[in-house]
Amino acid sequence: MTYTKILGTGRYLPENTISNNDLKQFVDTNDEWIFTRTGIKQRHISTGETTLDLAYQASLKAIKAANIKASEIDIIIVATVTSDYAFPGVANLLQAKLGISNIMAFDINAACSGFLYAMQIADKMIKSKAYHKALIVGAETLSRLTDWRDRNTCVLFGDGAGAMIIGTSNYNHIKDIITGSKGDEEMLLYCKNPDLKSIEENLVSPQDHIHMNGKEVFKFATRMMPKTLNELLERNNHEISDLNYIVAHQANSRIIQKAAKDLNIDMDKMYINIDQYGNTSAASVPIAIDEAIEKGYIKKGNLFATVAFGGGLTWASALIEY
Ligand code: ACO
């Protein structure tokens, strides 16, 4: 039987940060509102580095942590909603930048759940024995899609990337992954690609931005996070108390607090870094896992769960023994 495990993780954030007070120059907002409603204090915003650049830096760190050569990687999956080009994908450009030839590389789009979707695909491909080592990345420059005139959304998002190498193992470390979606509620959170329009209309129409029904997304997130985690635990014969730690998608600290309350789990078992980064979409989960490992919240042999939700609407969770 082929099993899988995490071999290494890495993250990269662009250097430039924007505080809550800095946002006052664009919109009518304040630090107190943003922090009490979301837990965010600042976000990293790229000043020139593209999604590929962020993905590349995070990947180099994950490859180093895994103690492997880039040439050992036989599949790359990048989860992103902000690829540099419509095509080729970030994964293809990343493959070239890492100097790896002739391997499968592709992007997926499942918004903030994308990294766990990528993990599920890679996990199954390795367990099928067709592949041996996967580089999976969540990377975003959401600042490109942000409407800096809309205080309902612009305060929430940030740029960043997280990467992970997973590979074959004799022991079953990556135990289970759940993914799901609900396309009939997609308009709660969306950003349109350019409409199919006449050339004349295209000449005058601006690029679309992120639109969100915050209250409904909040309700969806607080309902779905405990639901998918409970399902994950139940189908693997575990109790919530068996978990050493939970790494949730960082969209709002109040969403994480509500999920912890409903799951009856202490907040000191929930990772929080949204104060530093805001919501980095597909990058949020791998950045948080990398930090939680680095800070010793997740130790070798610990059982942890990770959970995400996002546009689509999508959700995902994974149960992993590190
Ligand atoms: N600064 C000051 N005031 C603001 C701001 C701001 N940045 N934004 C909104 N307000 C005002 C509103 O206009 C409103 O004023 P009004 O009552 O006069 O109309 C008031 O604050 C309250 O606004 P609400 O929308 O009711 O605030 P709420 O408590 O619901 O918090 C929030 C809004 C933070 C967006 C919350 O609903 C939320 O976090 N939702 C989930 C969002 C989320 O997780 N999105 C990411 C999904 S993942 C992905 O795929 C990207």
UniProtKB/TrEMBL annotation:
Stretches assigned to the Beta-ketoacyl-[acyl-carrier-protein] synthase III C-terminal domain: 233-322
Entry EC no(s): 2.3.1.180
Domain of life, source organism: Bacteria
GO MF annotations in UniProt: 3-oxoacyl-[acyl-carrier-protein] synthase activity; beta-ketoacyl-acyl-carrier-protein synthase III activity
GO BP terms: fatty acid biosynthetic process; secondary metabolite biosynthetic process
Active-site residues annotated for this sequence: 112, 249, 279
Reactions it catalyzes: 2-methylpropanoyl-CoA + malonyl-[ACP] + H(+) = 4-methyl-3-oxopentanoyl-[ACP] + CO2 + CoA; (2S)-2-methylbutanoyl-CoA + malonyl-[ACP] + H(+) = (4S)-4-methyl-3-oxohexanoyl-[ACP] + CO2 + CoA; malonyl-[ACP] + acetyl-CoA + H(+) = 3-oxobutanoyl-[ACP] + CO2 + CoA; 3-methylbutanoyl-CoA + malonyl-[ACP] + H(+) = 5-methyl-3-oxohexanoyl-[ACP] + CO2 + CoA
InterPro entries for the chain: ACP_syn_III_C, ACP_syn_III_N, FabH, Thiolase-like
Any single Gene Ontology cellular-component annotation: cytoplasm
Positions of the Beta-ketoacyl-[acyl-carrier-protein] synthase III N-terminal domain: 106-183
Role description: Catalyzes the condensation reaction of fatty acid synthesis by the addition to an acyl acceptor of two carbons from malonyl-ACP. Catalyzes the first condensation reaction which initiates fatty acid synthesis and may therefore play a role in governing the total rate of fatty acid production. Possesses both acetoacetyl-ACP synthase and acetyl transacylase activities. Its substrate specificity determines the biosynthesis of branched-chain and/or straight-chain of fatty acids.
Entry's family note: Belongs to the thiolase-like superfamily. FabH family.
UniProt comment concerning the protein's domains: The last Arg residue of the ACP-binding site is essential for the weak association between ACP/AcpP and FabH.
Subunit text: Homodimer.
Designated name of the protein: Beta-ketoacyl-[acyl-carrier-protein] synthase III
Organism: Hujiaoplasma nucleasis
The organism's taxonomic lineage, starting at the top: Bacteria, Bacillati, Mycoplasmatota, Mollicutes, Candidatus Izemoplasmatales
